[in-house]
Amino acid sequence: MANLLVRNVDEDIVRALKARAGLHGLSTEAEHRQILSAALLKPRK
Length: 45
Fold this sequence. Notes:
Structural class: mainly alpha
């Protein structure tokens, strides 16, 4: 599995990611993986 580093992310986005992860009971890293998978691997309607 590869590693991905994202630099220069706006603080508002980081806060929103942390809040969303908390709502889902996930770590911020796990939430980030889930968002990327949903956006890039799921078939589009």
